[in-house]
Amino acid sequence: MTEPPEVPILDTARLRLRPITEDDAPGLHEAYGNAEAMRFWDGLPSRDLAETVLRIRRSLEVSPHWHATFAVEQRASGRFVGAVNYHERRPLYHRLVLGWLIVPNYWRQDLTLEAVSALLRHCFQALDTHRIEAEIDPANVASRGLAERLGFQREGLMRDRLWVESKPSSCLMYALLRPEWGDAGHPNG
Ligand SMILES: CC(C)(COP(=O)(O)OP(=O)(O)OC[C@H]1O[C@@H](n2cnc3c(N)ncnc32)[C@H](O)[C@@H]1OP(=O)(O)O)[C@@H](O)C(=O)NCCC(=O)NCCS
To answer: Given this structure, which CATH class describes domain 10-130?
Structure first.
């Protein structure tokens, strides 16, 4: 296998995306500890800060060949506002899956749009990805709207694709292909 790809710092107009560390746990816990923010996540909210630390630690054990999580912070203040990641990367097939989550106090400020636009550029260009996927709960209106704003196309319902809270869970498959990406617009990215 080749060297794992770098997890770089990605700057946008308002944001900095950088490799997450355990020091980000208090910021991330504002989302991971919040039942409303975690309603459509493929896992339960963290019971306490220690569990959020453990989740970050586990994510850092996985090589950036397959998975990388970026903390999203405001450039002006250094304030942690969320996290975005790629996972299930399959270099052989030039595809990966994205995840996104913003701390509730910062919702509806186009911050995810800005952060994910930068992550898309990194994945398409630096990681030589052709197909970028998002697996979204059909009831997650915010995430579906975001994916569509970014130019993702809805491809269909994947029945019982996930296992959440001890039962199977279906999700919508959204995907954006590299040749389509130019049409999506890249606000401040
Ligand atoms: C999904 C999520 C990341 C969106 O974050 P956000 O920073 O508020 O999104 P943005 O402000 O960048 O919005 C971008 C677009 O997303 C859509 N959107 C965001 N929130 C929405 C909502 N509540 N209802 C409908 N559309 C919404 C809109 O199309 C919006 O564009 P617009 O402002 O021009 O209407 C945020 O709601 C979140 O963290 N949810 C909990 C975690 C989660 O469910 N993650 C996804 C798992 S698949």
So the answer is: alpha beta
